[in-house]
Amino acid sequence: MARSSEARKVIMTNRRARHDYHILETYEAGLVLRGPEVKSLRQGKVNLQDSYARIENGEAWLYNMHISPYEHGNRFNPDPRRPRKLLLHKHEIRRLLGKIQERGLTLVPLQLYFVRGLAKVELGLARGKAAHDKRRAIRERDLRRDVERQWEDYRRQRR
């Protein structure tokens, strides 16, 4: 996780992941990118929806993350949906692999950001939510909104 003193420039947040999964742990990983991809990221032309991470042959890979081709790029623009290697320490990869195999968990990207000019992705070790859990979360969110609205109305009337 990035320290609070380091400036984090958030590019994209995967809000859908927090809706569909219970996030148990988070990890920060670097991304192996090509030049035009970095320029597209700086423009915010990325989509994390439906993306996931997998560990294969002792390496972590990110699949289905769509980075739009850089407009001013040339014929060497890489495939927008190509698998991208994640940079994690070997002990983190081993730990994640054990948890994924043992408990049937999955790795989902939660956030994409720059820290000191380097592209990072926040991965969540997640367990899928059941439909009733999603409905409960929606109900609680709606209740919080209603309470906030009522509180604002009350404060407005008191002035």
- CATH fold-level name of the largest domain: Small Protein B, Chain: A
Q: Beta-sheet strand percentage? A: 35-45%
Number of helices in the DSSP assignment: 4
How would you spell out the order of helices and strands?
Answer: EHEHEEEEEHEEH
The coarse overall form would be globular
Q: Would you identify the CATH architecture of the largest domain?
A: Beta Barrel
**What's the story with the biggest beta sheet?**
7 strands, antiparallel
CATH class of the largest domain: Mainly Beta
User: How much is the radius of gyration in Å?
Assistant: 19 Å
Strand order of the biggest β-sheet: 1-8-9-2-7-5-4
Rounded to the nearest angstrom, the distance between the terminal CA atoms is 43 Å
How many domains make up the 3D coordinates?
2
Q: Which structural class fits the helix and strand makeup?
A: alpha+beta
Residue stretches low in confidence (pLDDT < 50, at least 5 long) are none
Helix content: 25-40%
Q: Using DSSP, what is the number of strands?
A: 9
CATH homologous superfamily of the largest domain - what is it? Answer: Small protein B
Mean pLDDT: 86
